[in-house]
Amino acid sequence: MATRTAAQQRVDAKLRYDAYVAECPTRHLLDRISDKWTSLLINALAEQPRRFGELSRRVAGISQKMLTQTLRNLERDGLVSRTVTPAVPVRVEYALTPLGLDLLPVMQAIKAWAEANMEEVLAARADYDSANGS
Amino acid sequence: MATRTAAQQRVDAKLRYDAYVAECPTRHLLDRISDKWTSLLINALAEQPRRFGELSRRVAGISQKMLTQTLRNLERDGLVSRTVTPAVPVRVEYALTPLGLDLLPVMQAIKAWAEANMEEVLAARADYDSANGS
DNA sequence: CAGTATCCCTCATGATACTG
DNA sequence: CAGTATCATGAGGGATACTG
Fold first, then answer.
1. pTM of this structure
2. Is B72 helix (H, G, I), strand (E, B) or coil?
3. Nearest to A66 by CA among A44, A29, A41
4. Which residues in window 28-57 of A are less than 7 A from strand D by Cβ?
5. Residue B5 lies in a domain
6. Domain containing residue A26: CATH number
7. Structural domains in chain A (count)
8. Greatest alpha-carbon span in chain B
9. Within chain A, which residues score under 70 in pLDDT?
10. The pLDDT value given to residue B4
11. What pLDDT was estimated at residue A78?
12. Can you give the residue range of the structural domain that contains B123?
């Protein structure tokens, strides 16, 4: 039944999935990729494939638990690959998959937007807080 | 000291703020704009300015509490404007600010990506789950 | 209509300790 | 090194009821 092109399939998907609908599985996916650790990790892995320890240093402040958990989720969702090299000690390397690479531009954009507009937001908050109570 | 152009200021901001650093305020901003309700609300407000009740219907499943809370945060951050028209009953309309409009493309992209790639992710999960235990 | 105010509870996340 | 396991906490978020 390979009569649908990739482009047609994408159109179909857009019709089938609508994140405005509460029961849509897209909600969960949106939740996952809208995670702060996800955006930081995808960005960090885009710089270069990295080992567990490297990642925890690059993404400062992430706990071992959240790093493991987020990486597992990303691996399960097909965004990140996990390669184990048997050795002593064992070497585990994480990298973006093609699907992860496809998501990358969005993750880069969101991180870049936050960094670029931090001061404007800070100013808006100051305005809001002085206009309203405290 | 208005010797810096807008472009230069953006470059400065990128140097000053780095979301990889744990203490960077960007982390909080990233968290906020990486919220599932935020992306849905920004998208909904881009379609047209909307009233409270319209929003709660458009973004199905959101509770009154989360809607209020998220709107307040977005207003405080300067992404959304809130206009009250005195009348009986009172009319309150929410709309995107220029800053919110600036963020819109990113919010559209993330929602669109989730909807477009849902099936690939679902397939990846099925693979992962059958490869590993259950 | 557009909220605010409470109660309540689950789950996300961090801290700590242990392991192949 | 690259995790897993366990415990503890508090914030996120839903349900319900009330108000200008």
1. 0.89
2. helix
3. A41
4. 51-54
5. no
6. 1.10.10.10
7. 1
8. 63
9. 1-15, 133-134
10. 60
11. 97
12. 10-131
